[in-house]
């Protein structure tokens, strides 16, 4: 059986049961399906994109109130107006939260706390805005689904509820499997790497958060038209906590797991409440704690580990060879003038000038704290300069964000291996290839095919990755991850490459391999490379020119021979045993 069909079947059976069962049991199952859909939307933002939203109930509750209000006041087409308004207001609310939290780059904990506060505030507003929300008592007698003069029967209304739920769950599952979902997962794994590959990380996270707000708002309206009642409890922290717990129990990095967990938990809690009304909350809470402690990755992941691997095919990524780039990025290299950077009273860089115009390897050396990595962070957009300017390929790119610099022809490799560990080698490379050219809609439509430029294949062949493309990147050795990151950096057809200690943590053999790769990139592909390094043996083997940085200022610049013959530089940096790292 096709893996996708295996996943769809249980949800489809639940939907069919909701329609065919009696009014009471079918109505409950339809409600649980809606809640499962909203939990699946949270799984997309939390499990896939890494954005924990403790106030997911806010957009759900706003949609529910919109569905109720329009159902009561908008006449014959109140149901349709309520659905549209629920989706719209859910999206608007999510966008506002994202604008404050995600665009302003709150860390994960800060953003989660912000959504916690929003949920508390929203429930208070719902309790006190009586003319609109009905206050503590909520809104009752909301009409069932109707379109014009056509009033749906209870069975037909359940069919609409269950059908919409299944369609939205399928949409969420499809997005998670597509390159769009993989891009969100890569952002979750390593935001800096994705920004350095050309992705507008802030926009991607805000877009995903807004989309799931639309889904939650729509399903809130569906829910209230099914139950015909809304109260402040739907918008508050308790409901938001439920969504988080259900997603955690079901395995938040899947879409189907949270849906099934929501159905099972709610059905079980309903039965338990009827059998032991005084103790059901205590028993349910104890069960949650036990599950979280014993199955931290969620039930779906645990179950999957016990099933045959052939049931879960990996994504089939087809990688080809792209023709050599003919775009207009080449020419001009990198020209840096009087760049400075301060952190409060501390001056990290002062009046730095660099000219990297011709193809070649330019090494940047200096003691710890000299400002080498800071300079690379400034030039690649990760740290703001406080003075100076720089041009890339003849264009003034001073102060641009990382993703714009990448799209202008700049490549950046970080000191520590920087890859998306949850993706395979092939998926990492495809993500890297699309970063410079693809927006969200393109990633949604995109098939898993990518053509890598010759310079990227040059590195991949040197690393011997041809037979390892389906290997998860997290399982690679340190040196292999360094090579993968270098290949990823080169997929964007960069003309200027910034490398921060590319041989850090490598063996001597691996270091020699990196040296050969850099010489080949310059010789065969005409790249201009700026390398921060400490290893003098490596520098002697690759450098065309060397610049010495001390205290944020340039101390000297010249060929390797000139630097080694400089008495001041030699006394400070080269006076150690040959090949030693200072």
Explain this structure.
- A hairpin with a 2-residue loop joins β13 and β14 (553-558).
- α3 crosses α10 (201-227), α11 packs across α12 (256-275) and α19 (454-463) runs antiparallel to α21.
- The model is unreliable at 575-582 (pLDDT under 50).
- Strands 9-11-12-6-13-14 form a 6-stranded mixed sheet, sandwiched between helices. A 4-stranded antiparallel sheet has the order 5-4-7-8, covered by helices on one side.
- The chain is elongated, with a radius of gyration of 28 Å.
- The chain is built from 24 helices and 14 strands.
- The protein folds into 2 domains: 3-311, ABC transporter involved in vitamin B12 uptake, BtuC, CATH 1.10.3470; 334-574, P-loop containing nucleotide triphosphate hydrolases (Rossmann fold, 3-Layer(aba) Sandwich), CATH 3.40.50.
- With 582 residues, the chain is an alpha/beta fold.
In short:
The chain is an alpha/beta fold. Helix content is 56%, strand content 13%.
Please give the structural blueprint:
Elements: H1 3-20, H2 23-48, H3 56-73, H4 78-101, H5 108-128, H6 130-133, E1 146-147, E2 150-151, H7 154-177, H8 179-189, H9 191-196, H10 201-227, H11 237-250, H12 256-275, H13 280-294, H14 299-305, E3 318-321, E4 334-343, E5 346-356, E6 360-365, H15 372-379, E7 387-392, E8 395-396, H16 402-407, E9 410-413, H17 425-434, H18 440-445, E10 449-452, H19 454-463, H20 478-490, E11 496-500, H21 508-525, E12 528-532, H22 536-542, E13 545-550, E14 553-558, H23 560-565, H24 567-574
Parallel strand pairs: 3-10, 6-12, 6-13, 9-11, 11-12
Antiparallel strand pairs: 1-2, 4-5, 4-7, 7-8, 13-14
Helix pairs in contact: 1-2, 1-7, 2-7, 2-8, 2-10, 2-11, 2-12, 3-4, 3-10, 4-10, 7-10, 11-12, 17-20, 19-20, 19-21
């Amino acid at each position: 059986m096709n893996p996708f069909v295996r996943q769809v079947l249980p949800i489809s059976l639940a939907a069919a049961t909701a329609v065919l069962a009696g009014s009471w049991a079918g109505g409950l199952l339809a409600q649980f399906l809606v809640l499962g859909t909203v939990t699946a939307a949270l799984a997309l933002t939390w499990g896939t994109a890494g954005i924990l939203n403790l106030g997911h109930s806010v957009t759900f509750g706003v949609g529910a109130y919109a569905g109720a209000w329009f159902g009561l006041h908008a006449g014959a087409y109140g149901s349709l107006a309520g659905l549209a308004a629920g989706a719209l207001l859910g999206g608007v609310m999510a966008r506002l939260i994202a604008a404050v939290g995600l665009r302003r780059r709150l860390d994960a904990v800060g953003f989660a706390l912000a959504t916690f506060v929003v949920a508390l505030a929203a429930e208070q507003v719902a309790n006190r805005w009586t003319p609109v929300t009905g206050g503590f008592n909520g809104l009752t007698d909301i009409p069932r689904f109707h379109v014009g003069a056509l009033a749906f029967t209870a069975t037909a209304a359940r069919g609409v509820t269950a059908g919409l739920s299944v369609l939205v769950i399928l949409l969420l599952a499809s997005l998670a499997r597509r390159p769009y979902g993989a891009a969100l997962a890569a952002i979750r794994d390593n935001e800096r790497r994705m920004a350095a590959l050309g992705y507008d990380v802030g926009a991607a996270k805000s877009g995903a958060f807004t989309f799931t707000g639309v889904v939650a708002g729509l399903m809130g309206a569906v829910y209230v038209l099914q139950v015909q009642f809304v109260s402040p409890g739907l918008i508050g922290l308790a409901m938001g906590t439920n969504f988080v717990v259900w997603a955690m129990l079901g395995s938040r990095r899947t879409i189907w797991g949270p849906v099934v967990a929501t159905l099972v938990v709610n059905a079980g809690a309903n039965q338990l409440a009827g059998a032991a009304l005084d103790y059901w909350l205590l028993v349910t809470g104890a069960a949650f704690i036990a599950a979280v402690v014993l199955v931290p990755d969620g039930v779906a992941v645990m179950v999957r580990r016990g099933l045959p691997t052939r049931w879960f095919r990996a994504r089939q990524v087809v990688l080809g060879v792209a023709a050599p780039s003919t775009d207009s990025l080449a020419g001009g290299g990198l020209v840096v003038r009087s760049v400075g950077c301060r952190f409060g009273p501390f001056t990290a860089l002062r009046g730095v000038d660099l000219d990297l115009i011709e193809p070649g390897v330019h090494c940047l050396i200096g003691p710890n704290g000299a400002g080498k990595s800071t300079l690379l962070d400034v030039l690649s957009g990760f740290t703001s300069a406080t003075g100076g300017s720089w041009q890339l390929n003849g264009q003034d790119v001073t102060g641009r964000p990382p993703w714009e610099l990448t799209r202008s022809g700049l490549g950046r490799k970080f000191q520590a291996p920087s890859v998306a560990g949850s993706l395979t080698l092939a998926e990492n490379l495809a993500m890297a290839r699309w970063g410079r050219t693809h927006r969200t809609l393109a990633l949604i439509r995109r098939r898993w095919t990518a053509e890598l430029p010759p310079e990227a294949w040059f590195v991949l062949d040197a690393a011997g990755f041809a037979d390892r493309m389906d290997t998860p990147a997290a399982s690679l050795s340190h040196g292999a991850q360094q090579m993968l990151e270098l290949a990823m950096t080169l997929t964007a057809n960069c003309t200027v490459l910034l490398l921060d200690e590319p041989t850090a943590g490598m063996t001597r053999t691996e270091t020699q391999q990196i040296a050969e790769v850099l010489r080949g990139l310059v010789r065969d592909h005409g790249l201009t490379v700026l390398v921060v390094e400490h290893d003098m043996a490596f520098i002697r083997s690759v450098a065309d020119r060397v610049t010495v940085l001390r205290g944020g200022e340039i101390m000297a610049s010249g060929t390797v021979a000139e630097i080694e013959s400089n008495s001041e530089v030699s006394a400070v940096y080269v006076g150690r045993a040959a090949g030693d790292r200072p």
